[in-house]
Write a structure and sequence with these properties.
288 residues, alpha+beta, 60s Ribosomal Protein L30, Chain: A, 2 domains, 5 strands, elongated
């Protein structure tokens, strides 16, 4: 029994020491957790501060750039104002000779403006005459297939395009009777334009042609042109002095020669109503 008490007394201090150490450990652990939380919060606050610092630096740089631009604009305005003031100072006193020079310049501007208006009026009159000529031609020819004949104004010039299908037999420069009727109607309108000159252009496709005295498409285009000219002169009385015969061969196509339809369009005779350049040059002469 005594042995039991003795053992109990011997173990009591160790038990008490163990209890005290456990309490201290838990308290220390709690304190450590608190410190870790505080540290994490401080790290978060520090990151926010760093982010704010970077954003403020960016904004400051943008403000500085904007201020620099405004300073440049202000300097430019000041420079312009200085120049304008200097010009006003220079113009503040105008001599009699300078005033007379300015008056002459204004008079010249007025004369040139009137000259330009005269030119515009003359060009408008020419356009009106061209349109009247086109309408007369279309009225004289009547309801003919547009694929065979086309009358138009392009850049102030009247063109009459007649397909070779209407004018000539295939591979020939002999004019058909139907074509002579059409040429007669065209000639009747042209005869009423006493001051008009015109050119007859022959055009071909790009298929090589050689027959008899004709060596190539140049020869064929010229022969077809002169055939039309002879009909207009000898059969319908147009003055040969006002007619030009020209051959353009295959070199001024209006369509793709790779298709049958395109080649047919390129085989044509064109009558060009020539602009009266002498009348135009008279407009350019200074008025007395």
């Amino acid at each position: 029994m005594k042995l039991k008490y003795f053992l109990l007394l011997a173990l009591a201090p160790a038990f008490l020491f163990s209890c005290v150490s456990s309490k201290k450990f838990k308290a220390a652990q709690a304190q450590l957790d608190s410190l870790n939380q505080a540290h994490s919060k401080l790290q978060g606050d520090f990151k926010l501060c760093e982010d704010d610092k970077a954003e403020n630096a960016r904004k400051n740089a943008a403000y500085e750039n904007e201020i620099a631009d405004l300073k440049k604009q202000l300097a430019f305005v000041k420079e312009n104002n200085t120049t304008a003031l200097k010009q006003l100072e220079d113009l503040s006193v105008i001599s009699a000779a300078q005033a007379e020079s300015i008056k002459k310049s204004l008079d010249n501007i007025g004369a040139k403006d009137a000259y330009i208006q005269d030119l515009q009026a003359s060009l408008a009159r020419k356009d009106s005459l061209n349109m009247a000529l086109v309408m007369n031609l279309k009225g004289a020819i009547g309801n003919l297939d547009d694929q065979d004949i086309n009358i138009k104004v392009d850049k102030g010039v009247v063109f009459i395009d007649i397909s070779d299908k209407l004018l000539f037999r295939s591979g020939s420069y002999d004019i058909t009777e139907k074509a002579k009727e059409v040429l007669g109607k065209v000639a009747q309108v042209l005869k009423n334009q006493s001051d008009v000159e015109f050119m007859v252009e022959g055009h071909t496709d790009d298929i090589s042609y050689s027959k008899g005295v004709l060596l190539d498409n140049w020869d064929l285009s010229v022969k077809r042109s002169t055939a039309v000219v002879r009909v207009l002169q000898k059969q319908y009385g147009l003055s040969p002095a006002k007619i030009i015969a020209a051959g353009r061969g295959e070199y001024v196509p209006i369509a793709d020669n790779n298709t049958a339809q395109g080649r047919a369009a390129n085989r044509r005779t064109r009558i060009v109503i020539l602009p009266q350049l002498d009348q135009f040059f008279k407009l350019l002469e200074p008025k007395q």
